[in-house]
Amino acid sequence: MSHNHSHSGPCGHDHHHDDDSHVKPDEGDQDLLYSSIDRDRILTLNETVPGSGASIFKPWDRRLDPLPELVSDADDQLIIHIPFTSSVKLSTLLFRPSPNPPFTPESIKLYKNLPESSISFDDLPSLTPNKITTTLNSIPTISDTSQIISFPLAPVKWSNTDSVTIFIESSLGGDHSGIQFLGFKGKSSGYTRQAPQNIVYESAPQLKDHSKVGTDSLSSAHGFGH
Predict the structure, then answer these.
(1) Exposure pattern of 26-61 as b/e (b: 16+ CB <10 Å)?
(2) In 3-state terms, what secondary structure has residue 160?
(3) Which of 3, 5, 34, 140 qualifies as a FRET site for 197, CA 20 to 30 Å off?
(4) CA 164, CA 184: separation in Å to the nearest integer?
(5) pLDDT band, very low/low/confident/very high, at 29 (cuts 50, 70, 90)
(6) Between these two residues, 198 and 80, which has the higher pLDDT value?
(7) What domains, with CATH codes, occur in the chain?
(8) Is the pTM for the entire model greater than 0.85?
C-alpha cells in the first residue's frame, strides 16, 4: 500500500518528534499522565498477547524499550479502551510506532468517554462520525523516526475526560498493526474514583466473529487535534 508521508495533518497541525534536543533534562515526563491511567482496567481487543495493550503504557524512562509491544492478532484492527483513575484534561497523545513499518497504523481515531458497553468491533464502527473526538492522520513509521511522536490534542475537546478509546482501523501493510509505546500528557483533577466492581472483562476476547470493518462509514477529514 502506498503511503505519502507528511509532517502535518490536513488542517496544518504539526506533530513533534520528542528527542533529547527538544526536551530539557528531567522535563521529558512533565505532565505525563502515566500514574492517572487505570492500567488494570485497560481493555484491548484483537491483541496477539493478552495484556500487551496495557503494557505499552510505560514509564517515561522506559519509553524507548522495544518490548513489550502490542501487535494485532486476526487482522490489522485494534481497539484499546483506556480508563483514568480521575478526570483529566488531555493535551498530547504520545506514540512510538512498531519496528516493522508496514505495521504502522494508517490513522488513529480517538473517542472520549464512550460507555464500556460500546467497546466492540460490532458497535464501535457503527457510531456516527461526530462521535469521533479526534482523528490523527499521516502517522510516521519507524523509518521516519525512532523517537516518541507527540500529537497535540485540543484541550477544550479533551477536558473532563474519564476514558479514551482508540480505534485503529487499518495499517500501512494491511496484515497487522503494532505499537511500542502509548502515553498521554495533560492535567489530572486529582480526584480518584473507585473502579466499578460489577464489570467482568473477557481476558481473551474471541475473534471468531470479528470480521474486519470497512473504512467508508468512518471516513473523516479531521486532522491533528480535531
Answers:
(1) eebeeebbbebbbeebbbbbbbeeeebbbbbbbebe
(2) coil
(3) 34
(4) 10
(5) confident
(6) 80
(7) 16-189 (2.60.120.470)
(8) no
